[in-house]
Structure formats: structure tokens, C-alpha cells
Amino acid sequence: MSTSQPSVSIVVPVRNEADNIAPLIEEITAALDGRWAYEIIYVNDGSTDATGERLAAIMKQRSNLRQLRHARSGGQSAAVRSGVRAARGEIVATLDGDGQNNPAFLPDLIAAVEKGAGRVGLAAGQRVGRKDTGFKKFQSRVANGVRNGILKDGTRDTGCGLKAFRRDVFLMLPYFDGLHRFLPALVRREGYDIAYVDVIDRPRHSGVSNYGFFDRLWIGIMDLAGVWWLIRRKKPTPEVTEVNA
């Protein structure tokens, strides 16, 4: 792969996903090769299995694959933020590293941001046909209903890892643990539009979940209150022009 400046960066946060590394990278490349100049950034969030070694081996074959490593696990939001800060593309797309998010939907998400002509700050995947247990689906419906009722973000599913956004828009958002769960509300807060893309969920390739889900509502209740406060306190962004002598 070319090492030229990428226009798109794919950020994948992972912790202890060694067996899912190679299959997912193959799917990402199949979806994007020939369409964009891109890079893949895996953020190894303090893995204790062979995740780092598997990535290092594939990096020898793919010059557009990068690995960032957290010395200790900081959580999914921290991993996504590390990846976005290191990204070289103007558009960043994210997906979970367990294989449950299908990379075949990445082109639709990236194209939605491009077609937004600067007005679309985020393209959010909305899962259909979820492969979670009935209890998790129920929790997710309750949490999404409460969140949407309070924040009015117009999003039925914020837990999907498949997203694409403008890097500069993401970096202007206030950072906190759990940020990735509130991207639609926070991007709207900055005055940008949201595009939605239906994506088909599937079972993870192997292993077990290493990150928590927002559908455990009690974990996100303080974050929900904080984001509501941020939205309420937002002032219109001044229109600034420079006056020359």
C-alpha cells in the first residue's frame, strides 16, 4: 500500500482481540482498497493477549497499518480519542474490533460525510437485526429511549461502533469518558448535521466482550446529565471575520 497522505483514517479500538485481528483487517481492506487513500489505526488498549504481536506481524505486510498502544486500559472512549488524534485523514471512521461491525458499510458512512459538503459532521450507523441477547436488546431500547427523550438527538442507536466523522469536528468536542456514546448530541451541539446509515449487525468472530455497553443505563446516568448540561449551556458560535487595515 502507498504511504502517501491518506484522506481517510480507520480507527479500531481493541483490547484482547488477538483472534479477530487478521480477519477484520482483511475485510476492511476489501471494503476500501481502490476507493480512498486510507490508513488503519489499531489502538491496542492495554491488551494482555497476543493482540500486539498479531498486529506487528501484519504491519510488516501492510504499510498503511499502524498500532498505538496504551500501557494500561483506558476504555473505549480513550482508545478512540487516541486514534483520532493520531489520524492523518480528514475523515475518520470507527468500528469495533470484535468483528460484530461489518466493514462493508464503511464506504456508505464515509461517502455520507463527503456528500455533506461540510455540513454533515457525523454519519452514524444504526443497527438492524442485532445479534445480542434479548435482555441486552431490551436494555438498549430503554437506554436509547431515555437518552433521546432527554437530549432530543434524534438517534435511535448510539451504541453502534460504525461511525464516520470529520476529524476536526471530533477534536472540537469536550472530552470525557463515554464520549463515543454521545457523539450525535454533541455534534449537533456544534451546529453540524447528522447522517444515518442502516447497518446489519452480526455475531462477533470470537472471544467475549471487553468493553461495556451504554445499554447498561445506570453506568451512563451521570454522563447523560452532563451532556444535557453542556447542551443547555451552549451559546451560539460567533461569526468571526478579520478586519484588515
List keywords for this structure.
single chain; 245 residues; alpha/beta; Spore Coat Polysaccharide Biosynthesis Protein SpsA, Chain A; seven-stranded mixed beta sheet; 7 strands; 38% helix; 19% strand; globular; glycosyltransferase; cell membrane
Describe this structure in words.
- This protein has 245 residues and is an alpha/beta fold.
- It has a single domain, classed as Spore Coat Polysaccharide Biosynthesis Protein SpsA, Chain A (Alpha-Beta Complex).
- It is 38% helix and 19% strand.
- The protein has helices spanning 18-32, 51-59, 76-86, 106-115, 134-151, 167-171, 183-189, 217-233; strands at residues 8-14, 38-45, 65-70, 91-94, 120-128, 163-166, 193-200.
- Strands 3-2-1-4-6-5-7 form a seven-stranded mixed beta sheet, sandwiched between helices.
- Helix 1 (18-32) runs parallel beside helix 2 (51-59) and helix 5 runs parallel beside helix 8.
- The chain is globular and about 55 Å long.
- The mean pLDDT is 85.
